[in-house]
Design a protein that fits this description.
The chain is an alpha/beta fold. The protein has helices at 11-22, 36-46, 62-68, 83-91, 104-115, 123-135, 150-160, 165-172, 176-189, 195-204; strands spanning 2-7, 27-33, 50-54, 73-78, 96-99. The chain contains ten helices and five strands. The N and C termini lie far apart (40 Å).
Length: 209
């Protein structure tokens, strides 16, 4: 059973999300929070698998709350389709980013994807991140890049371009197990929490541009 914490400053939206999630046999809501500060506290005490995190909230916004949440995967939901929110949320450690008008089936799928350790990074989101880094005059050095093998760098580049494990497998003509091994090595060597942070590391290292 995948446990979910719903974070939004609008009670009606929280109730809607709860009803949607609790109707699924493999998902259950363990708590609700109306502010970023409440989200951090409940994430610590309830230890949910996934946090559905709003961006604009009183006291503490969702990006700062995402940065402070330790353990659960964070799926950011917002009504604002702005580059600064996408970039800020992923940099803070979010595993995915969706608009609140995303169809219910896609939202439920996203919760399962994030809970499984994958990241929800569509090609449109990766293109935005690339554009963001192109606008920056310089990027900080990424620690650990020098110890990557050439094949690991290839896999990192494909992840940064938004390819799924299956697509990477097809592109490199390797098995699923091999792809997962490479990704595990990348996470360890780059000290990344999940796939989203690998994407950020690839941009910061200048591998994508």
């Amino acid at each position: 059973m995948t446990t979910v914490l719903i974070v939004d400053d609008q009670a009606l939206l929280r109730a809607s999300f709860r009803l949607l999630v609790d109707n699924e046999p493999d998902l259950t809501v363990v708590g609700e929070a109306g502010t970023g500060a409440e989200a951090v506290a409940l994430a610590s005490s309830l230890a949910p698998d996934v946090v559905l995190m709003d961006i604009r909230m009183p006291e503490m916004d969702g990006i700062e709350a995402t940065r402070l949440v330790d353990g659960p995967k964070v799926l950011v939901l917002t009504t604002f389709d702005l580059d600064e929110y996408v970039f800020g949320a992923l940099r803070a450690g979010a595993s995915g980013f969706l608009l609140k008008d995303t169809p219910p089936a896609e939202l439920l799928s996203a919760i399962r994807v994030v809970a499984a350790g994958e990241s929800l990074l569509s090609p449109s989101v990766t293109r935005r991140l690339i554009s963001e880094f192109v606008r920056q005059p310089s990027a900080p050095a990424v620690k650990g890049l020098e110890v990557l093998t050439e094949r690991e760098k290839e896999v990192l580049l494909l992840i940064a371009r938004g390819l799924s494990n299956a697509e990477i497998m097809a592109a490199l003509h390797v098995s699923t197990g091999t792809v997962k091994t490479h990704i595990g090595n990348l996470l360890a060597k780059l000290h990344a929490r999940d796939r989203a942070q690998l994407v950020i590391a690839a941009y910061e290292a200048g591998l994508v541009g």
